[in-house]
Design a protein that fits this description.
The structure is a homodimer.
Chain A lengths: L10 H24 L2 H17 L1 H17 L4 H7 L3 H16 L7 E6 L5 E8 L2 E6 L4 H12 L3 E5 L5 H17 L7 E3 L6 H8 L7 E5 L2 H10 L12 E5 L5 H13 L8 E7 L3 H14 L3 E4 L1 H6 L3 E2 L13 E7 L2 H11 L4 E5 L3 H10 L4 E6 L17 E2 L7 E2 L6 E12 L4
Parallel strand pairs in A: 3-4, 3-6, 4-5, 7-8, 7-12, 8-11, 9-10, 9-11, 12-13
Antiparallel strand pairs in A: 1-2, 2-16, 14-15
């Protein structure tokens, strides 16, 4: 194994190396954008095969990360996210193959129209250009992000977490070898190999114009740093403070099934429900049953005064309404009605994913129209808020910002449009 | 006239007042978003009528700005941009009426699909939320920006230039009175009335989360300040360094007509051509004729060595290729071929608007696909790069960034999508 990350003796050296990466990425993005869909698909297939072919190398690299992680005392949940197995590597290669099978988004005509003067105007999809992705422990993000960027004609500069440094290098090496085999520039996928945290600062500065957008994917400290330092557009992912609202018209059995899944299927994901809102009209009969099912499944409940008058549970503090528990803890509030539920979500939500459970379609349609979140659901688990579940093949995160794209970011969301205007000598009147 | 702008004795007072504006804008945006298309259309019609009804007030306010501008020694071109006349006020009211007639973009289903598990997923257009617009001298931007934001269900906080402060206040007052008459919150359109430059800094900080995006519209010093200070997403407008390329397959008469228009129709707009590229195969016969027509029309030419060997003109410096002349000056370079032209544009262009003139459709299609600018044209003047010319009714600028939207920003570009998911009790498998 000769995977030791290069370290730099001065910040100027590091910056120089990163600016050179940026320049290579810019050139690679031009070539990849113009290569056409067939060659991009072939490259993705070869990238998938290259991951399988590199299984041994990836496992050895991952073993180095796991040893280092254990000696650093990483939590078991972190170690689990970090660990690669032959099955997980096969799943990673399968994921890249799925992205290879997705429709190529580049060149799609989104709309076209003709002006009275004869000009034909089209809005055409194209790549963003060069994308920087900053992420934390899970090494499979390297493969997801790399493949989605290639599918969308973008070059990418990846900056993984130091815990997964060896694994990410091995995976990025495989992706680059697939690109080479397809006769496309390997620099369409580059990994910042140093674990020096100054590298994140350079990415956030935009590498002198070489980066068109940065996508951070990580915990609160990363998000805070991005918000403070970024001098380049950001497609951001804040927290997922998701709500499930049991309306007075809800079916009780459906409500129990959805809430158990929305809270407990996985508690560490951003789409897990953190707060249950229940309508005052059904709370006396429904809440004891819902609470019973949750408690039996190992969930701790923290309720407001009205919830606790119906069911024994811990008192919720003001902080609980704002907390992404990311564990088997659920905040519970009784609300007067649909407006009360929407007001609670507007005050405390993170505009990520929110759900209403009801048989009353008029109430559902008001909720879907008026709750201003990236994903709003009617009668389905919040944990469906996911690129693969939406049919996008993969995702590099769930955007919670308000421009460009909201919700799962797949290949199509890594594009932008330009206008193509075809004339026959038109000049503009004075 | 009692239009004096309030000034604040401390920055904390100013910040407090602006945070209060932000909170009012947030609430107004919620009401406007949920008001529905019919009420937004009615509001826009009433806003248009209110501008006409306030003509006298607006003219008086404008006279104050003109007097101040003259005593400050503003250039005649600036004074012309600043001046309002009854005809210009009627045009402004007409512009708002045009926006009232545009289709309402909110609630449009962009795409929908059904998943194998029965979930029905739609991508639905909605407003961005609260938009901050920072602009310079022309007071009519107040009406364009205010009306486009109302059409798209967004609240807006406007910060005009100090030169047009009184005019903007009078116009904003009319827009707000139209909103009131439509029983919609007047705070959907607010104007920062103080001319204190610290107000721009507060807008760029995002007003504590109240602003979702800032749109700067102005010269280089504003753009530089936005790039240095913005802590909120920006839909930016950099300069328009536009090229027109005369390919070897161009029709000479068409080339002359387009270049005269692209350079000289108006020289102070961002879509005017700044550099003429001409193919070496036709330069010896075409350039003298094109140059003759331009010089006769009063345009100064600055050429590279090859251009000057064909036609007498001033020598272009390296700086000229990077300069938005914004006047009757044109840089001229002879290029070897299509690839040479595209390489020049990639090196020096600002990804705003670029044009190819040719009868060779294969060359044109390569140019349209590979030149990575917000607007690319074939056989038409670059000065068509404009929201009204594209059929958008109006625009608040031409975006030169690479996320969210490129090119003219109209009502539709002030929206974003969310996902609406309709289920019947689905839960996500483990």
């Amino acid at each position: 194994m000769t995977l030791a990350a290069p370290q730099f003796t001065s910040d100027a050296d590091l910056l120089g190396a990163m600016l050179a990466m940026g320049a290579r990425a810019r050139e690679a993005s031009r070539l990849l954008s113009n290569a056409g869909p067939v060659r991009r698909t072939r490259a993705l297939e070869l990238m998938s095969e290259a991951i399988l072919a590199a299984s041994e190398t990836i496992l050895q690299a991952n073993a180095l990360d796991m040893t280092a992680g254990r000696s650093k005392g990483l939590a078991p949940s972190m170690l689990d996210r970090l660990e690669l197995t032959p099955a997980r590597i096969r799943a990673m290669a399968e994921g890249v193959k799925t992205v290879a099978a997705l429709p190529d988004p580049i060149g799609t005509v989104l709309e076209s129209w003709k002006r009275p003067n004869g000009l034909e105007i089209s809005r055409v999809r194209g790549p963003i250009g060069v994308i920087g992705i900053i992420y934390e422990s899970r090494p499979n993000v390297t493969a997801d992000a790399g493949s989605l960027c290639v599918r969308s004609g973008n070059a990418v500069i990846l900056r993984g977490g130091s815990e997964s440094a060896h694994s990410s290098m091995a995976i990025a090496g495989a992706l680059r070898s697939g690109l080479r085999q397809a006769d496309l520039p390997e620099d369409a996928v580059q990994l910042v190999e140093t674990t020096d945290r100054a590298a994140v600062g350079h990415l956030l500065s935009g590498l002198n114009g070489a980066l068109d957008v940065v996508v951070p994917r990580g915990g609160k400290s990363l998000v805070a740093r991005v918000q403070a330092e970024a001098r380049v557009p950001v497609i951001g992912h804040l927290e997922g403070l998701c709500h499930t609202y049991v309306h007075s018209g809800a079916d009780l059995d459906m409500a129990i099934a959805i809430i158990l899944n929305a809270k407990l299927r996985r508690t560490g994901v951003c789409s897990s429900t953190e707060t249950l809102l229940i309508d005052a009209r059904v709370a006396p009969t429904y809440l004891p049953k819902i609470a019973g099912a949750l408690i039996e499944a190992g969930c701790e409940l923290r309720g407001d005064g009205r919830a606790r008058s119906l069911c024994p549970m811990k008192a919720a503090t003001e902080d609980d309404w704002r907390t992404e528990h990311l564990g088997p803890i659920l905040s519970v509030a009784v609300v007067d009605d649909l407006d009360g539920a929407m007001a609670h979500i507007a005050t405390y939500g993170s505009q990520h994913t929110d759900c209403i459970i009801t048989r009353d379609n008029r109430a559902a349609e008001r909720f879907l129209a008026e709750v201003d979140s990236a994903v709003v659901l009617h009668n389905a688990s919040t944990q469906f808020s996911d690129g693969a579940e939406f049919g996008m093949g993969a995702e590099i995160g769930i955007a919670t910002g308000r421009i460009h794209a909201r919700g799962p970011i797949g290949a199509e969301q890594l594009t932008v449009f330009k206008y193509v205007v075809r004339g026959d000598g038109q000049v503009r009147p004075l």
